[in-house]
Every structure is written in structure tokens, then in C-alpha cells.
Amino acid sequence: xxxxxxxxxxxxxVAALRPxxxxxxxxxxxxxxxxxxxxxxxxxxLRWETHRSRGRSLRVRCDAAVAEKPAGExxxxxxxxxxxxxxxxxxxxxxxxxxxxxxxxxxxxSNASDALDKLRFLGVTDSSLLADGGELEIRIKPDPDAGxxxxxxxxxxxxxxxxxxxxxxxxxxxxxxxxxxxxENKDLGADNGLIGQFGVGFYSAFLVAEKIVxxxxxxxxxxxxxxxxxxxxxxxxxxxxxxxxxxxxxGTQITLFLRPDDKYEFxxxxxxxxLVKNYSQFVSFPIYTWQEKSRTVEVEEDEEPKEGEEATxxxxxxxxxxxxxxxWDWELANExxxxxxRNPKEIENTEYNEFYKKTFNEFLDPxxxxxxxxxxxxxxxxxLYVPGMAPLSNEEIMNPKTKxxxxxxxxxxxxxxxxxxxFPRYLSFVKGVVDSNDLPLNVSREILQESRIVRIxxxxxxxxxxxxxxxxxxKEDKEDYKKFWESFGKFIKLGCIEDTGNHKRLAPLLxxxxxxxxxxxxxxDQYVESMPESQKAIYYIATDSLQSAKTAPFLxxxxxxxxxxxxxxxxxxxxxxxxxxxYKEKKFVDISKEDLELGDEEEETxxxxxxxxxxxDWVKQQLGDKVAKVxxxxxxxxxxxxxxxxxxGWSANMERLMKAQTLGDTSSLEFMRGRRIxxxxxxxxxxxxxxxxxxxxxxxxxxxxxxxxxxxxxxxxSGYIPESPAELGGKIYEMMAIALxxxxxxxxxxxxxxxxxxxSAEADSSEGTVTEVIEPSEVRPESDPWRD
Length: 788
Known about the structure:
about 20% strand; stress response; about 800 residues; six-stranded mixed sheet; eight-stranded mixed sheet; alpha+beta; Heat Shock Protein 90; transit peptide; Rossmann fold; about 30% helix; Histidine kinase/HSP90-like ATPase domain-containing protein; ATP binding; Ribosomal Protein S5, domain 2
């Protein structure tokens, strides 16, 4: 459809229309002459149309004819190649990809390992390549005086064209090209241990070097070439080696001329030895470093003549002396072999333990280990350990960045700094190694990228860890699991809170003290197996100590009925159980909360309910808003009363914990604090006395004081913290004075002082004093509940 321009113009405006190209513009008279309509065609595809309306206006329309493209034909565009500023690109690679300078040695050793691997593969079909050049090995020689590091390998080497292709082309990976060739040649196969993939690892040497010299000799060429480049330059030099002393039989020699700021650190032989052990300890080829060593040798020296003796030169005696001599020699840096690459059936437990101690600097044997290989979507090998003891430092507990999992890619160490990518926080105590060829890494090979592969690996590692812990729990010797639980029980409870997907595997691992097993812990399976058929729930109580749990008033009726109760005595226990909610279709029930159903309660008679309803109402009236309601208790047998929490909100134990939080929000305490219900035991003498006071003398001051003290006592015995401990102490002293007053007799002077004190106390009370102190008296009223 051609685009159109239309509008309504007056007759005087038509003359202002510009003429069409190549034609004379029609006048207004000729344009308006046709009474119906008119059309004028112009050059360049324009067509003007006029339409007269009934009024004085004239409607003009202009259509532009646009050539339409044939179907399926697209406009041909010009193709361009991306351009890059080489110096800027090199600067980004060197200074932006890597977090730590020390990784340069890992990258260069990995390149040397790839060169040796390539030669070994090529030697399968052409044995002449391995004829000269000695063993397949890597040697690293730091020179502190010259400020250089020399890395030499006896690998495949490079020709001049390969130098330009591999080192002269940024992000051109020779290893990747070799792998592609291997895959195309199915006779050679693609199972290999080659490391490189990005083609930028070599340039990490510029992190510490101001100049790099690469001397290389390929078996394919008779000539040896030298590649030279300096930092912050966009060019390099390639020349033929002419110095016979620097000739190589085969392989590559890289010399790094260190920057002034880095030569003191990285030219140190012990530092180089440590980096090799950390990053390249499990490279499949031997790595030798130039180290200073010492040895004891015997030397002869002239013996000093004794006093008074003179000896001629020919008669001087020689004596032997042992001295320490220092010398330089090559030392193997990667003695430890990657145990995870071997068949588990061929490895003894002592080998696993030795590997664990060397790798993680431990002195105790692990409690358990697991060695497995995973194939399928993700292929990786792993050896995991449960340590023999918990971390000594509190900072390592529950810390996801514990450096306990060492990640390798093709036996080259990548990182041990993870934030929950491979293991959840509650399993951060597990130590081990993971080696994979499929991990998605960033270009610097330092950061594990989030991907589906990582999630699959994490899931399988967690599953294998649970299998390992379950094996400890199922052993006949329960001491091992007892050690595990004492060291890592808090971690498993944390898992119940953070990992809802693994509740079925976490819950059987839990252990608790109980009312029937105070000395030892039991599992939830043991609890359920010992439950009577009539019991429908798993009962527990949360307190601050084992002794508090044993003496809690909430237990009385349950112990009487032989119902087992779990003791949750650690701060994390209650939250962990609340997150589990059920176990084997049995609900967890807190016996310190309201509406406790024990299953066989006898129905009270109507008369008894009416009797104690009156007492409950009277006690509620005395306590006011301190409690939500007062009711008859079904859980007490020996205690007079107890204060229970409502169904919703915090328990007494949780309220105590939340108040102790350093950064706790005090405004949330009132919102989350559960309502308090005062339960009384109708069979207790104190309650019976209060019931009599309620009926006979409801306004008795002593009875009201007894209710207040009863409430305060129940507050403490139920696990709550009184708001005013001093006020509670005063009430206790007051009631003690009433109970003990004159029981053992006093002198007349003391009696007079007591009477005076009583009179002054009454005067103070009439004046509205808040604190009232009453001295004991010989005369005790009839309504005194402590009267003999």
C-alpha cells in the first residue's frame, strides 16, 4: 500500500502547491474547474487528487507510489569483521580476568602438561617423535638473583607457524584445535586429559612478568625458534635460535623476567614449591622444582696440639668433623597421586587416610569416606570424608566458605572458595576433592558458573554424603556415630531448617535425650518403635538444660502414664523439630503448649466442672491481663499449677532465646509472644485451700497474695523469666514471714519490735506505698492457708 498525504485546503491555498517536476503547475482555476473531481499525475511517482466538498473547501490527496520488493528477495547487506584494539584486549586479559597473581604458574604448568599429553597421543602412531628428548616431565627453576622463572617441558614443542598461530593469536587455543582433530580421527579416540580450552592462559604470565621469552623445538622441524614479547605491547618478535648452548632436544622453555614488585615473592624457590603443590599437585607428569637442600658431610681438619707439645708440619694429626653443607638440586613437587583416578577396589583404607591427612593437613583419621564416579549427564570423580573431629575454631562452624572441598578440572586445582555452589551450608564440614571435565568455568577458571550441570553435581554430592553418614549410623559399633553426633549434630539440625527437600534423609539421623533414656540419645525410629499403639503423636519439651527438662512440671502426667518425651536442650532443637512437623505420619507435639491431648482423659463430672469454674473465674479476676484464661490442667499430678503457652506464637523456651538475641527486635516480642494460660491442679492442697477461700472469703488479702505468688512461681517453673525478680523476692519473703511467724518462739523485746514493724507497715500501706513489708505475728488468721 502506497503512503498517502491528505488534507483540506481553501481555494487560495491550492495555488501554493509546488509544481510537479517536469510539468507546469496548474492554476487554481484549472484545478477547480471540474465540478466533480480531478487528478494530476506528476513525475517521480507522485499522484495528486482533488475533491470539492459542498462548502468552499477543497480536499487534496497525494499518493506516493513505492516499488514493492518481489517475494523472498532481501536487501543485500555488506559484511564486516569485528575489530579489536590488541593492546587494550591484552590489558583486559591480564588485569581483569584473574583475581590472584599466583595463578600464572597454574596456567603455564597446565600448558606444559597439555604439550606432554599431545606428544604422548601423537607418539601412539609415530614412535619416532618420542625417540629423543628424554622423559616426559616439567622442570621449574626460579632464580632470585636474576629475578627470573624458567619453566621447561619435554613436550611436543611448536614450529614457527604454530608460534604465530598459538601465541600470536589471542584466544586461539591450540589444545582446543588438537581436541577437535582427535574427535574427527576416531581411531585415536577422544578420551584424554588435556586441560586448555580458552587460549588465554599463557598471557596470565604478564601478571608478574615484564618480559617473556619462549624458546621451542618441535619434532616436526629441524629449527628452534624464539618468541619474545614485553608487557603492554601490541607486537612480538619471532627469531631462529642460533646459540648452541640454548638448544633444546625437544619441547618448550618459557623464561619470565619478573617485575620489580614481584621478583622477591615469585622468584623464591619455596614459594614456587608451594604453588605447585597447591595447584598442580595431581598433574599426571612429574614436576621438578629447583630447591636448596642440605646434607651432612665429613671433612678432615688439623688437630690442635696439646699444651706444651710442638708438632712439625709433617707430624700434624688429622681429625674428621661433620658439617652441614648446602647445595641446589631438583626436587619432585607432586609426589601425591590423585587417588580418585584409581579403582576403589584396589585402594586400602590406610591409603585413603594418608591421602586425607596430606591433602587437608589433618592428624586424625576420618570417621568415614566415600569414593565414587558419576556418569551420564555429568561425569566427575570424587572422594569425600567425614572428619574425625569438629573444627576447633568457632568461625568455621556453619561457614559455607570453609575451603573443605577442593575442585579440580582434569587434575588441576581450580578453587576451594565456594559459597554453597557444591555443598549446602549444613554439610560444610564434609571434606573432599571433586574432579570433573564438564564444569562450566569462567575464562579465568576461578569461578564456578551457575548452571544446570552444577545443580546436578550438587544433588549427587549431597546424596552420596547422606549415604556415607547413614553407613556410620548403621554400624554395630555405635561409638563412631556418637562421635559424629557430638561433633556435627548441630549441622544436621541446621539441615532440617534449611533443606526441606531432604527431610526424609535428615530426620533418621537426629538424636535426642528422652525421659526414658536420659544417659544416652535415641533416634526418632527408636522412639516410634517403642510407642504404644494408642499414642498418636511424638511428644517433646524444649528447655535450656537436661536438668530443667527432667524436673519440668509439664512431664508429670506423661511420665505417670509411661509416655516417652524427647528433651530438646540445644537452642537449635526446637526450630529444627518445628520445621520437620511430622515423622512417619506422627505429629510433633510440644507438651508445654495448650490443648495437650493424651488420648485417655476421663470426663469430669458436671459438679466438678461447676466447682472449679468458680475458682478459675476468681483466679482470672485476680491475675487480670497477665493470663489469657485459667483452666483445669490435664498434665499435672504433683505440682499445684503451671503456665502453658498458646497454640500459636513462641513457647517459653523460644521467648527466652529471642530475648537473648544481640540484634533482636524488641517490637516483635509482643507480637510473637504466645498467650499464657494458667492451669491448676485440682488435687493439690494449695488449690483446694484457694477453692475454699474463693467460696468463703473471696476478698481475703492473704488469698490474693497467695494467688500472686502462685502465678510467679508457675512463671519460673514453666521456663518464663519474671519481669521483676526483686518484686518476686519480696513476695516470697513476705509469705515466709507469715508462715514462720513465732513458730519457734521469740523474746518479748523481739515481739514488741515485730508489733511496731507491723504497725508501721500498715501505716505505709494506707499511704499507698508500693512495697509492703509485714513482720511475722504470733496471731494467725483462720483463713491463713499455711495454718497448722
